[in-house]
Amino acid sequence: xxxxxxxPETDALARKVAALRKTGLTEAVHTALVHxxxxxxxxxxxxxxxxxxxxxxxxxxxxxxxxPADKAFRDSLYEDG
Length: 81
Known about the structure:
By secondary structure, this protein is mainly alpha-helical. The protein has a domain at about 10-60. Helices cover about 65% and strands about 0% of the residues. It has four helices and no strands. The protein has helices at about 10-20, 25-40, 45-60, 70-75. Helix 1 crosses helix 2. The longest helix is centred in the middle third of the chain and has 18 residues, at about 25-40. The radius of gyration is 26 Å and the shape is elongated.
C-alpha cells in the first residue's frame, strides 16, 4: 500500500529521522507513529482529570468547616468588594 507525504516539511522530517536511525522511510514513520500512540495513551483525557479532581475535592472536603450557602452568602458572591 502506497503512502505519499505531500507536505515538504513533513517529508524532510521523515527523511532526517530515517537517516539518523539508518532505516527506511516506512520504518521511520512507523516507529514515530508507534511512539506517538504510546505517549498519547499515557496521558489521561481531560474528562478523567476532571473526575479525579472532583473526587479529590470531595475526599479532602470538610463540610463541618463550610459556610452555609444561604441567600446572604450567595448575594455576597456578586457584591463589588
